[in-house]
Design a protein that fits this description.
The chain is of the alpha+beta class. It folds into 4 domains: 4-108, no CATH class; 117-195, no CATH class; 210-380, D-amino Acid Aminotransferase, Chain A, domain 1 (2-Layer Sandwich), CATH 3.30.470; 389-448, no CATH class. The protein has helices at residues 4-14, 49-59, 87-99, 147-158, 210-215, 217-227, 279-286, 328-331, 342-359, 407-416, 434-442, and strands at 20-26, 29-36, 65-71, 74-84, 103-108, 117-122, 125-129, 143-146, 170-181, 186-195, 235-239, 245-247, 256-262, 272-274, 293-300, 306-312, 318-324, 362-368, 373-380, 389-391, 398-402, 422-426, 446-448. It has a 5-stranded antiparallel sheet with strand order 2-1-5-3-4. A 5-stranded antiparallel sheet has the order 8-7-6-9-10. A hairpin with a 4-residue loop joins strand 18 and strand 19 (373-380). Helix 10 runs parallel beside helix 11. The longest helix has 18 residues, at 342-359.
Amino acid sequence: MHHKDAILDSLAERGNVAQFVAFRPSNGNPRQSNSRIAGHEPNQLFLDPFEAIETLLAASADQSVNVRSYLPSDPRSREFVYGLVSAREAFDTVRRLTGEGLHTIVNETVDVSDGGVSGVLQGQTLEFSPDDTPRCVEKPGTASMPFEKGMALFELVYGFRPDLDAAAGERTEFSIHPRPMGWKQTHTLLWEHEEGVPEVSHTSIGWPNNFSRMIGDKAFGLVIAHLAGARVPHTLAIPRRVRPFAFGRSTGDLEVWTRTCPTEQQPGLYTTVKGWVDPFTLMQKEDPKGDRIASVLSQQAVAAGYSGAAIATADGELVIEGVKGEGDDFMTGKVQPTDLPPSVRADIENLNRRLTLALGPVRFEWVHDGRTAWCVQLHQGRSVSTSRVIVSGTTEEWLDFDVSRGLPALRKLLSEIPPGTGILVQGEVGLTSHIADVLRKEGRPARLASVEA
């Protein structure tokens, strides 16, 4: 027999659960069994089922409840009725299902699209996603990371440490919410808990994922760099869907950079400008539909002695490129990379080692202030480029592109030419520049003109 009300009652002894009241059939009528409602004693009995449901509805976060039904002899759920806002309608639903011999649980409706996440903690591995139930772990796009890294991420973004404990052989389904929820009115809800489950081997942190898309690709990458111990300038993230949050270290500079933060990397497409810009006006101007830019970053400036980027190439080489001073013209292909002092190059190599140890091969933008290297943007993965080939591949047709025409002209060209046409890049451009990034993202063959096609 599988009494889900008793299971919920047991889970409530371990932690917070969504508010509920459960009923078992008795002579064709619903009889209250367990309950957990904020402000009331555990399993408090009410005068009748209607009063119990009315009390639950009034205490629920959105004044909405669901009714689910089941048979203890069959683990599969039966009818599920979502989002009832009338106590009378919910009571009538319970009475109808009870008349069919079913057990029922009425629980508060929990909004999975409130900016929080749902997921599973198994052993030392956290997996989670926004806009979904804990079943998200069965779908693509779920974020995965070690327990302590994930908890640090949640604490940084949401401002609280979730009520979760990792233990070998245990599996917990949970959800995390920006506002208090459940019968204990905390930010963490437990949905299921099992013991005696096998350990899972954790893979490295990877993105883009659904969570990185929610807060923005740049924001997620920089948070991960910060958690890996890299020097990241103090950054205020202003997302669309969660409260503003801050991370990083003070650079000692009073100036800021305003950086748009798309859901996924779009090299050089959206605004990055030195100085403060109204983030809400900027998002409205560049993304009026609200589906491409996830947040805006206000990042403390670094007094730039040298600036540039670094990538791990397809053949395992670390390519470090940069220029003296600020690097925005270099990243957009307007200026060529220059020779870097050995001390600067050594600091970038050390930064790369730190990030690679934590994440595997990475690509990152950096600024050196004369004393240390700062990470100002981070992406994961080895580049498909080699020292002179931006994107490998063969094709019968190559078109020339002069880098002096700039990024907008390159995007326009790529949107107009037939699939499979290769790009022969005329002029000197860094493998770490946005010009090269755009070509890699496009995926068509691309070479520097000095390499014979």
